[in-house]
Each structure stands twice: as C-alpha cells, then as structure tokens.
Amino acid sequence: MNSLLLRISAPIFMSALLLTATSAHAQYDTLFLDLAQGDEMTQLRLGMGETPPGSEGEKVTSMFYLSYFESDDILKVNKANLGEQKTEILALGAGGFGYLENPNLNGGAEFDFELSQTRIDSLDNYKRTGIGFRTQLFIPIAAGLQSNIGFNIRPFFLSSDWDDQAQLEYEYQAGLEYAFTWDVALYAHYRYVALIAKNDDDVKLAEGSILGIRARF
Which of 36, 73, 91, 139 has the greatest number of CB atoms lying within 10 Å of its CB? Predict the structure, then answer.
C-alpha cells in the first residue's frame, strides 16, 4: 500500500503546487475534509482545490482529494457468511462539490471521478485497480436539514485488470445531514459496499451506519 500511496500522492502534490502558483488569480484556496466513522467502517477524505467567489451557499469547489476506506465487516458471498474480513479502498479523486442558488430550496451535489485500488484479505488476495464515478445529492428538507443519496460505481471496462476478478464494484448510501453553514455539515448515513464477481457472485464487503463531518475551509 505504501508504494501505491506514493504513486497516488504525487499527482496531489503536483496539483497543490499548481494551485499555489495560480493563487494570485484565484479568490482563495480551499481545504476539503470528509471524516466518517461507524462500527463497521471508516472513511477519510482529504482534498484541496479552489472555490470562486459567490454568495453564501452559492459556491462550488473544484478539487483533488485522497480517500481511504477501511472495513472489518462480515463478508458475505451470495449471503453465505465468510466471517470478518478486512477491506481497504485507496483512491485519488477529482471533481466538484457545492450548492445551487438558494440552497435551502434547491440543494446541491458532488460529482467526482476516482482512480482507486481495492484490497480484500480473502477472495484469493483480491486486488483491483480501476476508474470509478462518485456522486451524491443534497436534497433540502428544512433550513439547514437535508437528505442525502449517493452512489459510487467502478465497472470492469474501466479497470486495468478488466474482469479478471470482478465485473463491478459499487457503493450506495442514504441518510440525513445538517449544514451549520454551507461549508460545514454533520451527517448520518447508511452505506452498503459490494461487488459482483467474475462468476456473477454477489459479494457484500461492508454494510452499516456511519456518522461524519464534511467541511471546507
């Protein structure tokens, strides 16, 4: 993992230098944090990017980020229990996060592309590298309170391994969050992480509730 971390960190470092070099032409640079913890899983995202000037809430951050997911949940293959297994997903992402005009009425969204590597202790030392697409929608309920739905898919045709080990890796989530400001929000999500193996087996990697905070500075 250390070698992969170095390979993935290099583009972030170069992007940081580029953003620093062009900061004279930007309003300000932005640090993005997304930290979540549950009994079954941990999710960490750290990014940096640029946020153009705009009215409160009406700002979209273009960013690069490094993401790490870890789970020790019970792995199931076609509902057959294989016991607790460690799953790790390391990813480099690029995309945008923000809200629409009048976010209390119109909400917001995040859209990202990710280069990721998934490792699973079992499943014949499963290790798969590929490109995926992540999105989440923020749907307003009341002032500051919003529902969240999202998904992440990594299909075989965007993997360097093609369908050698899996046809599809996927995640989906749903929950509630409260935005104290349009830059800081606490959330509670249900999340499901799984894959469809080459032989069409359904493999559940992680499932459970997480509590988290998302912020940009």
Answer: 91
